[in-house]
Design goal:
With 415 residues, this protein is an alpha+beta fold. It has 3 domains: 120 residues, Immunoglobulin-like; 96 residues, Immunoglobulin-like, CATH 2.60.40.10; 105 residues, no CATH class. Helix content is 16%, strand content 28%. It contains 4 helices and 22 strands. This is Interferon alpha/beta receptor 1a. It holds the Pfam family Interfer-bind. InterPro entries: FN3_dom, FN3_sf, Ig-like_fold, Interferon/interleukin_rcp_dom, Type-II_Cytokine-TF_Rcpt.
């Protein structure tokens, strides 16, 4: 090999040894904490893009009691950032731990640098998670939510003696000096008494743990106006407003029901009836048809009045054996028809019948003297028969004669 090749190898070896000798460990290890959120940060002065860091932790009691080399748990390996988040490892809050960090550049490691960490003592306490205000007459009600751990549990599980410092003051629109007052409470619901009615107040709350003298920062101010006795003018205004609202609601309801009523009435009972008429059609059955303006006016019918059908005169003829013997004055006709005997001529007569007795007819006025005659109905070969009484006013006035067919002849009767 050439001397140049050996020279390059020697130069690389010397440079590597120089870097390893100059590689320093990280400095200023610091824990950034809030409740149960823990992050370890550090500084490193040398600038090198190939550097990375390794972070490990172990419980402190294992270093004292273990005879063997303790097993360190690696939290971050080969990270280029100058921080390591330990929150996800759920370190025991009352425990004590030893943390260490080293740097690595191209396979060369620096020395370990260590620090101790006790969450109960070193972890910072956070402010309340939430503060809500609500008026309670002339007082203010404050609802405080506990600080939360990384698993959303209350910090009172770790600090049972946790309490709150409540700072409140009257809010002024101008920049006058504030006169603050302080109230301490372990409860989550606090009422601030002796406040002015209809006045704005601002509140800020701080978490406190006295054992290690832990105090959180104050929350951002929350402001609320107190209430008091409602003025009569405001009550009267509310009353008038409620009356107007009720009137409008009733008016709209009535209008809605009236509109529904008109719509239903116009739908089911229209004011304009459909033009249905009866057509006079002698060639076919009578049925209603819809007429239009193009319909022939000659097809229209006049108004028709329907009257009940007139009663039909019925004459009941008894059997021959039940007929009485006719009087001597009547003679049978050879044609089997008995005619009415009238001494004075033709005229109107009445017919009366009584059960089982002779029928007598009377009162026919003649054209000359108005004499009465008796009319008998005769049947060929048989005597006179009884007729049922007939009321002449029930017969239609246009009816003059009626022929009744019998088994043995035809009775010609003038009604």
């Amino acid at each position: 090999m050439s001397p140049a090749f050996y020279g390059c190898i020697l130069f690389w070896f010397l440079q590597t040894n120089a870097v390893g000798a100059e590689l320093k460990p990280p400095e200023n290890l610091t824990m950034i904490t809030m409740n149960t959120n823990y992050t370890l940060i550090w500084d490193w002065d040398q600038s090198s893009s190939a550097v990375n860091f390794t972070t490990q932790y172990v419980a402190k009691f294992k270093l004292k009691k273990s005879k063997k080399t303790p097993v360190w748990s690696t939290a971050c390996r080969g990270t280029s950032s100058r921080s390591c988040d330990l929150t996800q490892f759920n370190l025991y809050y009352l425990g004590s731990y030893v943390l260490r960090v080293k740097a690595n550049v191209n396979g060369h490691f620096s020395d370990w640098v260590q620090t101790e960490f006790c969450p109960d003592k070193d972890a910072a306490l956070g402010p309340p998670d939430k503060v809500a205000l609500s008026p309670a007459g002339s007082d203010l009600e404050i609802v405080i939510s506990d600080p939360l751990t990384s698993t959303n549990n209350s910090m009172k599980q770790n600090h049972p003696d946790l309490y709150y410092e409540i700072l409140y003051w009257e809010h002024f629109p101008d920049s006058r000096a504030l006169r603050t007052q302080t109230v301490s409470s372990r409860a989550n619901i606090v009422i601030l008494p002796n406040l002015k009615p209809w006045t704005w107040y601002c509140v800020s709350v701080q978490s406190v743990y006295d054992f290690y003298n832990k105090k959180s920062s104050f929350t951002s101010p929350h402001c609320m106006q107190t209430e008091g006795a409602t003025p009569w003018g405001q009550i009267f205004g509310y009353f008038l407003f409620s009356l107007v609202i009720c009137f409008l609601v009733i008016l709209l309801s009535l209008y809605f029901f009236f509109w529904c009523y008109k719509t239903l009435k116009a739908t089911w009972f229209p004011a304009v009836q459909l033009p249905f008429q009866y057509l006079c059609d002698s060639t076919g059955p009578h049925f209603p048809r819809l007429l239009t303006q193009d319909s022939d006016s000659e097809m229209l019918c006049d108004e028709v009045t329907v009257c009940p059908e007139s009663p039909v005169l019925k004459i009941h003829i008894p059997p021959p054996e039940a007929l009485p013997v006719p009087p001597s004055g009547l003679e049978p006709d050879s044609s089997g028809r008995r005619r009415r005997q009238d001494s004075s001529g033709s005229g109107d007569s009445g017919v009366y019948s009584t059960g089982g007795s002779h029928s007598s007819t009377g009162g026919s006025h003649s054209s000359t003297g108005g004499s009465h005659s008796s009319t008998w109905a005769k049947v060929s070969g048989q005597g006179p028969f009884d007729l049922e009484q007939v009321k002449m006013q029930d017969v239609a006035p246009g009816l003059k004669t009626q022929l009744v067919n019998a088994d043995e002849g035809i009775v010609d009767m003038c009604v």
